[in-house]
Amino acid sequence: MLLVAPLVSVPLYETLWDRIHGSKRLTDEDEWVWQIEVMQKLPIHFLATEVGFYTIHFAMHSWPPLYQHVHKIHHRFQAPTAMTSVYAHPLEFLVGNLLPIYLGPIMTNAHPLTSYF
User: Fold this and answer.
1) CA–CA gap between residue 110 and residue 103 (Å, rounded)
2) What's the rounded Cα separation, in Å, for the pair 24 and 109?
3) How deeply is 73 buried, as exposed, middle or buried, from its count of CB atoms within 10 A (0-12, 13-18, 19+)?
4) The whole model's pTM is what?
C-alpha cells in the first residue's frame, strides 16, 4: 500500500478531479470560505465516504468472483485487529478504501484545506 497510494491513487484521483472541474477547481490561492466549506461541503464528504465505503464493501461480499479474487485477502486474518482493516488487495485499497474518501471533495470541488479533513 505504500506504493499504491502515492504512485497510483493520488495521481489517478487528482487527474479525475482536474477532468471534472478543469480550470474551476479550487486551489490554495483561492479564498477559504469556511461557511460554505464546513457547513455545506464537509457533511457531503462524510456522507459520500460512508455510503461509498459501505456500497463497495457490500458489493465485494455480494459478488462471488470479486470476493474470491479481491476481498478474500482482507479476511485472511482471524483476529480483529487494526491491521486487518487496511490489509487489502491493491484494487480493493484503490477503489474500496481511497475512492470513497476522494468522492466528497471531488463532487463538491472542495478547497484543499477542506479536503485535508
Assistant:
1) 10
2) 8
3) middle
4) 0.79
